[in-house]
Amino acid sequence: MDNYRINKKELLNEIGGWNSFLKRKIHLIVCGGTALTLLGLKESTKDIDFMVPNIDEYNYLIATLKKLGYKSVTGNGWKRDEKYVFDLFRGNYIHTTELLESPLLKDNHIPFEEFSYIYLGILNFYDLIISKLFRGVAVDFEDCIILYEGKKNQIDINKLEVRFKETVSYDISPDRLMVNLESFLKKIKKE
């Protein structure tokens, strides 16, 4: 397993490189720890997480990356060299979590940077927290705390709870996931 990490500058350089090979528009929505890195809340991230909500754009991007020598290394992961894995999530999914709405809709992402062919946005804070809490891994809980502490003046806990409960209502195991929300809420109340 590699220990490479990518910072904000390196990530934007990598995306700029992709941009130079594209011939049509691609909307990338940054999620996971990558979003925290672009928001300046974490110095770097180990793997790079993007949503490509438009299926045609996803298919075009994958075809382009294959031409550039990227290989599939996991279900969603693509890698060209020994450094970074790019997790590219198709449609409204992050791992196995399906978001309630497209991240491309108004207020579902934060515009970040626009290249000639790549539009780069950051997933909204609510869906970032929800998608991480759905995974329930320790590092994801830590990222949720970092995000909340860094952006708490922009996060309405009541809105988060309502959105989480609606999202979890579509899952096959809602009780297990509600425990994750309760743990997170207890943790931030202690802080």
Strand content: 15-25%
The best one-word shape is globular
> Radius of gyration in whole Å, from Cα?
16 Å
Low-confidence stretches: none
Strands of the widest sheet, in order across it, are 5-6-7-4-2-11-10
And the CATH topology of the largest domain? Beta Polymerase, domain 2
Count of individual helical segments: 7
What are the secondary-structure elements, in order, as H or E? EHEHEEHEEEEEEEHHHH
For the biggest sheet, the summary is: 7 strands, mixed
Averaged pLDDT: 93
Instruction: Please give the alpha-carbon distance between the first and last residues.
Output: 34 Å
Helical fraction equals 40-55%
Outline the structure in words.
The chain is of the alpha+beta class and 191 residues long. The chain has two domains: 6-123, Beta Polymerase, domain 2; 128-190, no CATH class. 45% of the residues lie in helices and 22% in strands. The chain has seven helices and eleven strands. The strands form three sheets. A seven-stranded mixed beta sheet has the order 5-6-7-4-2-11-10. Strands 1-3 form a two-stranded antiparallel sheet. Helix 4 (125-135) packs antiparallel against helix 5. The longest helix has 17 residues, at 174-190. 31% of the residues are buried. The model has no long low-confidence stretch (mean pLDDT 93).
Walk me through the topology.
Layout: E1 6-7, H1 8-19, E2 26-30, H2 32-38, E3 44-45, E4 47-52, H3 55-67, E5 71-72, E6 77-79, E7 85-90, E8 93-94, E9 97-98, E10 109-114, E11 118-123, H4 125-135, H5 138-151, H6 157-168, H7 174-190
Parallel strand pairs: 2-11, 4-7
Antiparallel strand pairs: 1-3, 2-4, 5-6, 6-7, 8-9, 10-11
Helix pairs in contact: 4-5, 4-6, 6-7
